[in-house]
Amino acid sequence: MTDVGFYELRRQIEYKSAWACVILTIADRWYPSSKLCSDCGTHNRKLKLNDRTYRCASGNDKCRDYNASLNLENYTARSAEIYATGDDGSVVAA
To answer: Mind listing the pLDDT tens digit for each residue in 41-61?
Structure first.
């Protein structure tokens, strides 16, 4: 039953974004935002949920949630480079 709540939240966010002419980027459900190094991009597949700090050989030593937020910010920035908005507000490939 909780899936219905998240569906409605996403539906509302998509609706409000379209209404405000905002481009909404939704990361893939399986995008490993908390398992990627935000500095070098290394994928740490062995990172467990109880590991609260992300440590990488590149020297990255950050809170796991903060590291994930940086990865999602970069994900959004990469998506913005791919798409541009036309004069009529339509999204076109750049």
So the answer is: 999 999 998 999 999 988 889
